[in-house]
Amino acid sequence: LDGDVMRISAVAVRRMAAFGAGPSGWTSRTPRHEVAHSDHLTRGARGSSSSGERVLCPGAVSKNDESRQQQAGQKWFTPLVWIADVVEKLDGGIDLSPAKNELPDEWIEEEEVYRFQYGDFEHGAIVLSGGCFWCCELALQQAGLDTTCGYIGGLTLNPSYGKVASKKSGHVEAVLVTLRPGDDVEAILRTFLSNIDPSDSRGQGPNYGPQYRPAIFYTTESQRVAAEEALARKSDEMGGRVTAVRLRKASRFWIAEEAHQSYYDKNGLDPHTDKPHWLGAFLD
Questions:
Q1: Helix, strand, or coil (residue 63)
Q2: How many angstroms separate the Cα of 250 from the Cα of each of 78, 93, 113, 118, 220?
Q3: 44 touches 143 (CB < 8 A)
């Protein structure tokens, strides 16, 4: 089969499985605990051993309703996930190759980047990308973290939302977490990995493209080690499958436009109902 046809088929199957197996609008091969209200969210990112619960943008409902719907839906749509697995394998599996105009790690002067940017943070920082940064930031904020939306990883200077959306900048939408006393990097990584589909290398949820690929951008060697261990644990939870989350050196972080910061809170939107993700294109 033609490679493009196979890739499109895999995306279509994933979306059918995701939207059919439950109301969440996401797909995953591991058991998920998705909740509808922020008062149920984990606060484990601040030094707790909790692994965290998922915060999903589209279509979340109450836990009991979701459980009943998933039990019924899984019987019908589990075969679609199997088909997606087969299509992925025929297509070459998870794609971890660099995106167009992505900044190569070997070009990053790690000490210089840290000294002139991340070194300004008293207790350090880590950058995480996993789909739409509105959703990713919300999940991390509701875990009690200090966050900033922005762009990272590409060659394009002074990126804007529009440039990144063009898929030609090399950047991904990402969230910078400013670490504070008591913040546990391992717990932050658990929360992050619990709020994305770590098996999808082409994007997250309804958002597909190089700017939505999941990645962990480390700023210190200890963060790199912690990320490797977190990804290994996640792989074990997935039955030994390779995760699609890339581990990269943190390059310069470009802060996104003010309209994108704390987007859901700022606009009074409910992230647990379906919202048109394309609205952000008009905010550039």
A1: helix
A2: 37, 26, 8, 9, 9
A3: yes
State whether residue 177 is helix, strand or coil.
strand
The answer to whether 52 and 42 are in contact (CB under 8 A) is yes
- Please report, for the chain, how many H helices and E strands are present, in that order: 8, 8
Q: How far apart are CA 255 and CA 261, in angstroms?
A: 9
First to last CA, the chain: 39
Q: What confidence tens digit (pLDDT) does each residue in 75-132 have?
A: 555 666 666 656 655 555 688 888 999 988 888 876 667 666 887 888 999 999 999 9
Query: Among residues of the chain, what percentage have pLDDT more than 90?
Result: 45
CA-CA distance, 43 to 47, in Å (whole number)? 9
User: Which DSSP string corresponds to 207-253?
Assistant: EESGGG--EEEESSHHHHHHHHHHHHHHHHHTTTPPP--EEEE--PP
Give me the torsion for CA of 232, 236, 237, 242, rounded to 10°: 70
The first and second tokens of residue 241, run together, are 């499958």
Catalytic positions are: 132
By residue count, the chain amounts to: 284
205-259 tens-digit pLDDT: 788 899 999 999 999 999 999 999 999 999 999 889 889 999 999 999 999 999 9
